[in-house]
Each structure stands twice: as C-alpha cells, then as structure tokens.
Amino acid sequence: MASKYKVVVAGCGGMSNVWIDYAMKRPDTEIVALIDIQLEFAEKMRERKGLKCGVFSDLQSAIEHTGANLVFDVTIPSSHFHISKSAMSLGCNVFSEKPLAETMEHCNEIVRIAEETGRTHAVMQNRRYDPRIRSLRQMVASGQIGNVGFIGADFFIGAHFGGFRDAMASPLLLDMAIHTFDQARLITGAVPVSVYCHEFNPKGSWYAGNAAAICIFEMSDGLVFNYRGSWCAEGAPTSWEAEWRIVGDRGTAIWDGLNPPYAEVVAPGQEEGQFIKDCIRIDPEMSAFERRTTGHDGCLDEMFLALEESRPAETDCRDNRYSMAMVLAALESASSGRKVMLDTMLRL
Ligand SMILES: NC(=O)c1ccc[n+]([C@@H]2O[C@H](COP(=O)([O-])OP(=O)(O)OC[C@H]3O[C@@H](n4cnc5c(N)ncnc54)[C@H](O)[C@@H]3O)[C@@H](O)[C@H]2O)c1
After folding, report:
1. Does domain 5-123 have CATH number 3.40.50.720?
2. 41 in ligand 1 pocket by Cβ < 6 Å?
3. How many whole angstroms from 133 Cα to the centroid of ligand 1?
C-alpha cells in the first residue's frame, strides 16, 4: 500500500541524519528522494541508510519525479526561504529546520505563501519538547507564582565548533538564541514588543564575530525578558536549555535546564508588614508532557499530528515568526545601538 506521506529530504548534512532516522521509523511515511546541491552527499546518505529512493540535486525535479507531498528542509539557513517557497508552490507541505528564514521579509513571505497555497509550514524548535519546560510552563500558566513581571535566561557555554560558526558575524544570536527566545515565549505565553541588545566579542574569544550578547526584551503586559548569553565562556557552563528565573508577584520559579524546575512561593498566613516573607517550595506536576516523545522526535511527532488533525502545528510558521522577529530585532538593535520596536517587523 502506498505511504500517506511521501517525503523529499532536502540537505544531506549532519542534522539530516536525525530527520531521516525518524522518518524511517514511521509506518505511514516513505522517503522518496534525497537532494543535495552536492549530489555525492545525497548518494552517500542513501547508501548509509540503506534507502532505495532517488537522489537529485534540485528540489523541483525530485518532487516532479516522485509525486512527493512533504519536504523536510534540512539545508543551511540561507537556503530555507528558497526551498520553502518552491516546495509549497509545487504542492508540498514543509517541515523545516530552524531558522524559518534569514530576514523578516522572507519569514513573512513564507507565511503568505502558506496561506495562498493552503500548505502547512512548520519549524523545528526541538527545545520545546521536554517534559521539564512543559512543567515550568504549566506552573507559570496556572498562576502558581502569580502575575509574572520578569523572566531571565542565562546561557554560558565555551563551545569550540571549529566550523562555519567561528566565521559568522553573530554566531550566538543567529545560530543559537532562536532556541532560547522561543523557549521564553513558550514559558510565558507572552508576545515580544521591543528589544535593546548589546552584542560583543569578549577578550580571548575564538570567534571572528560577536559570540556574546545581552538583550532586554519588553514583552506583552509589561513583562521583561532579560537574556544573557555567551558561546565563549570557559568553565561553569549552563545547560544548553539555559538557566531560568521567572519572578511573579507571589513567588519565583527556577529551572537550571538540567533538573526538574521548582518554585518558591509566599507561604499562606503571614503577618502584614513582615520584612522578608517565608516561602514554601513547590515541585511541579511532571505529567504535563507524558504523552509525547522529546527533542527532535517530539517536534516531528507534533508536526505530523497537526497534519493529521488539519490544524497548525505548535511551531507553525505563523507562530515561529514571533521568535524570529526577536532574533532579527536584537541584531538590528545591536547594530544601531537603539531600542527596536517589533510591531512593524511583524506586520504582514
Ligand atoms: N535544531 C537544532 O538543534 C539544530 C542543530 C544543528 C543544526 N540545525 C539546523 O539544521 C540545518 C542544517 O544544519 P547541518 O548542521 O546539517 O548543516 P550541514 O552543513 O552539515 O548540512 C547542510 C546540507 O545542505 C546542503 N545544501 C545547502 N543548500 C542546499 C540547497 N539549496 N539544496 C539542497 N541542499 C543544500 C549542503 O550541501 C549540506 O550537505 C541548519 O538550518 C541548522 O541551523 C538545527
């Protein structure tokens, strides 16, 4: 029987392994073609995975020859817009690696094409698919720490990649911060309003571009999100999920990105005028996310489920452009030295 999902995988580099392994586990999914601008990469991948599909160097031929209905875009960021546009125009749905695209104009254009063609376009934000961040989200959303006024994320890792990131102008903001900014949106449910960003390259950094940044985002409802990050911080690393502090008017939630989150909230029955109030610890329900797989597989499960249910995936392009706007506005602020408002960028 023919598979329901006939997939073209675009880009056969490192990350595509995870996507291909996932697709090969799904009984309703068949990889019908692998493409790469370097055809030999596609050929080697086909051999390595024991696939019998076609290999191509361009997307249009791959789709036309195979009758594919879904494209996995695992190419480099500068190719994402072109691949998404072609795939949707040729009738395919698209699941893409982050980032959605490299400019806000292109992100918005992808949303317009998805609407015009009626195709789905969803983005890989694997760090959302983690039972700990879901528990933290539930803790915040259920009001356990009260009305949230501040959220802070620290990300300090000494990462010696040695590849393209070492030469990028803004490796941290462009390649990594999308994850942390998207996590902040998930945890708070807030919409970004403005940002002031100072981006810099600390002494001793092995990156050519700016490997560190401090951002102050104003979010909806007056909430402030403070991001402090560095990719050239030796010693005492944070986790890749970042370290989080969320302060509400009844207490504070903490997540170090390694252990389960917890909160300390004001204990009931305290006297008026007490200088520092006694607090009690709350450990969250860890059942908020029992149903799903985690990481990349978790995000892919959600994308497929959304297609089944004819609804936008959680990381649909319409949602993801808010996280992208945070990255692109932070870059604009860093280069202009001014606070940047996000409303014009987000206008479709
Ligand atoms: N979600 C995550 O945690 C995570 C982690 C790493 C990388 N990524 C993302 O995954 C994507 C791929 O990263 P990677 O590390 O596999 O890169 P890579 O350089 O190893 O592989 C990319 C492949 O795409 C091919 N390619 C480039 N342009 C193409 C085009 N127009 N058509 C067809 N093939 C094309 C290249 O030849 C290369 O083989 C990037 O967008 C990156 O940001 C995400």
Report:
1. yes
2. yes
3. 26
Q: Which atom of ligand 1 is nearest to the CA of 296?
A: 1
What's the CATH number for 127-293+325-341? 3.30.360.10
Q: Where in the chain is the domain with CATH 3.40.50.720?
A: 5-123
Per DSSP, the three-state class of 8 is strand
Side-chain half-sphere exposure of 342, counting CA atoms within 13 A: 24
pLDDT, one tens digit per residue, over 56-85 is 999 999 999 999 999 999 999 999 999 999
**Mean pLDDT, all residues of the chain:** 95
Token pair of 246, please? 């969320």
Q: Which of 21, 73, 97 to mutate to test the pocket of ligand 1 (most atoms within 8 A of CB)?
A: 97
Query: Cis ω on the peptide bond leading into residue 77 (within 30° of 0)?
Result: no
Cα–Cα distance for residue pair 71/67, rounded to 1 Å:
11
For ligand 1, say whether the CB of 124 is within 6 Å of any of its atoms. Answer: yes
Ligand 1 center to residue 56 CA distance, Å?
A: 16
Residue nearest to ligand 1 atom 33, measured at CA? 36
Ligand 1 pocket, residue 98 CB under 6 Å:
yes
Bridge partners of residue 6, in order along the sequence? 30
Is the shortest distance between the CB of 15 and ligand 1 below 6 Å?
A: yes
> Which pLDDT belongs to residue 287?
67
Per-residue model confidence as pLDDT tens digits over 159-201: 999 877 888 899 999 889 999 999 999 999 999 999 999 999 9
Query: How distant is the alpha carbon of residue 327 from its chain centre?
Result: 11
Instruction: Name the β-bridge partners of 95.
Output: 72, 122
Q: How far is the CA of 75 from the centre of ligand 1 (A)?
A: 4
- DSSP letters, 18-56, are HHHHHHHH-TTEEEEEEE-SSHHHHHHHHHHHT---EEE
